[in-house]
Design a protein that fits this description.
Immunoglobulin-like; mainly beta; 14 strands; 10-stranded mixed β-sheet
Length: 212
């Protein structure tokens, strides 16, 4: 009786298109994880818990987070009905000799907030803040060498999800060549510090919209 040879893994994949599709999806997922710095932004192992007002070295920055509050509006920008802003105040300073973009600043922070949204209003499982300059509320579009700004990290959440206390995770990043084009950039964000903060409550009433 003829016997059937043992198929190699490659032959098995060729003979089963679904296995090929699954393998391709997994390979793409692993590539994206590598390019975006792994799963670091959603975990906190290895990070040290520090008190509010503590200076933290988190390459390429030095940061300090002081206090948090819940608000309906900030610098004239109001949260949508049913939502609120959680604002964390502190400062950030660039400690390297080359300027960095706004995305590098934003990726340095996340928080343990539920029912959060990104800047486009879509649900965000791992919240990233909008980083504003405290003095005028303008978004921080990048940071130059040696510059320090007082900042407001602004998270958008459902109003009913505003916490009494939150923990902000500060992440450090590594300078390495991009896997896509070889250009140097800041990647592989890893949690380095956890900053617990009490959240001052929302005002009793949402402000009335201004009439024109």
């Amino acid at each position: 009786m003829p016997t059937r040879g043992v198929l190699s893994p490659a032959a098995t994949v060729r003979d089963h298109p679904r296995l090929w599709t699954t393998a391709a999806v997994l390979a793409l997922a692993l590539l994206l994880v590598t390019l975006l710095g792994g799963w670091a932004s959603s975990r906190s192992e290895g990070a040290v818990r520090v008190e509010a007002g503590t200076e933290v070295e988190a390459a390429p920055f030095r940061v300090r987070l002081d206090q948090a509050s819940a608000r309906f509006e900030l610098h004239g920008d109001a949260a949508e009905e049913g939502r609120a802003l959680v604002v964390v105040e502190g400062w950030i300073e660039l400690t390297v000799p080359e300027s960095v973009s706004a995305s590098v600043v934003t990726q340095a922070f996340t928080a343990d907030l539920r029912s959060a949204y990104d800047e486009f209003g879509s649900p965000a499982e791992v919240p990233e803040p909008t980083v504003r300059v405290s003095a005028d509320g303008v978004g921080l579009r990048g940071l130059g060498p040696g510059l320090r700004y007082d900042i407001q990290l602004t998270f958008v959440v459902d109003q009913e999800a505003v916490p009494e206390r939150l923990t902000v995770t500060v992440l450090e990043q590594s300078l390495r060549p991009s896997a896509l084009d070889g250009d140097l950039g800041w990647y592989d964000a890893e949690p380095i510090a956890l900053v617990p903060l009490d959240v001052a409550p929302l005002p009793a009433a949402r402000p009335e919209p201004e009439s024109f």
